[in-house]
Amino acid sequence: xxxxxxxxxxxxxxxxxxxxxxxxxxxxxxxxxxxxxxxxxxxxxxxxxxxxxxxxxxxxxxxxxxxxxxxxxxxxxxxxxxxxxxxxxxxxxxxxxxxxxxxxxxxxxxxxxxxxxxxxxxxxxxxxxxxxxxxxxxxxxxxxxxxxxxxxxxxxxxxxxxxxxxxxxxxxxxxxxxxxxxxxxxxxxxxxxxxxxxxxxxxxxxxxxxxxxxxxxxxxxxxxxxxxxxxxxxxxxxxxxxxxxxxxxxxxxxxxxxxxxxxxxxxxxxxxxxxxxxxxxxxxxxxxxxxxxxxxxxxxxxxxxxxxxxxxxxxxxxxxxxxxxxxxxxxxxxxxxxxxxxxxxxxxxxxxxxxxxxxxxxxxxxxxxxxxxxxxxxxxxxxx
Length: 384
Prior knowledge:
Residues 16-124 form the FAD/NAD(P)-binding domain. GO terms for molecular function: oxidoreductase activity. Pfam families: Pyr_redox_2. Residues 262-283 are annotated as: Disordered. The protein has four domains: 2-61, FAD/NAD(P)-binding domain; 77-137, FAD/NAD(P)-binding domain; 141-294, no CATH class; 320-383. 45% of the residues lie in helices and 9% in strands. It has 13 helices and nine strands. It has helices at residues 21-30, 77-80, 117-137, 155-163, 165-173, 183-194, 196-203, 213-223, 247-289, 320-334, 339-346, 351-364, 366-375; strands at 10-12, 33-35, 39-45, 48-54, 59-61, 228-231, 234-235, 238-239, 242-245. The longest helix has 43 residues, at 247-289.
């Protein structure tokens, strides 16, 4: 490109030039002169360049120069993390911008010799796409959608609770081995087979009626990002198979539980600090003006803050589960008015609430639930 601007080009290496024979031949073909002397200073007049002075006092008249600045990392974080640096301290990355350290990405000027905003933005986009793809393709063990610290009040949580899965998982995480004939495991399998439609609709699991308790348990474990391993010791002359949670899964699950516990404790500390702040404010208002300050309605779990105030009566829907139980009672009352009455009421609820209502209905009034199912065999279609 430079040869299109001028035929008088000189490459100054400021000392010994480490150029291959092919590179020297290219310079010669382009008509570029090579000067290997060390540069002493630049000469200028009226703020304009006039020449380059070498340490041997020779002067190369020039009216313009192009410098190749060298890049250096201002932070040693990359090397501390184990990244490998290339020329000019550039962090080495692959085509997805991932370094030699799995899961560690470098973008922008730290991983590119082209110091341009457009290039930096593009590299960030490439890394973001790669990270998203990696996360979505990871094994379920790296997701753990839910574990023994049930914290979400949803129909999925309710179903797993009714299955007795929490108690089973607690034992398994503590290292307990099972054979599959334990009362707790058999009860889980029996409940699963009695509630095949509910489990399919809520957890999206198909439970065959001829499968073993261990197989059924394994499906719930897989959905939680857990897996089992087995051993077959000899007992009384026969081999007996024992199952336990995969060791790596247990370690990861425990880390997740510890993290969630820290999050809960941190949230509780913030709530306590807020309560103390409000109490101090109320005391100041009372001392200064002998009045109580206006109270702000508390933030609900769904993000609302009771705008419009409260009517002073006890709210039967003070939690998700209490709300579902309340709706279930209303549905039970509507059964005597016919299928359409039940269907109309369920249409006002969310899909999660509908499944919760039907599960509670089946639990507390199995005879009436059987009557409804007989009158409306397609009731599962209402749940969507």
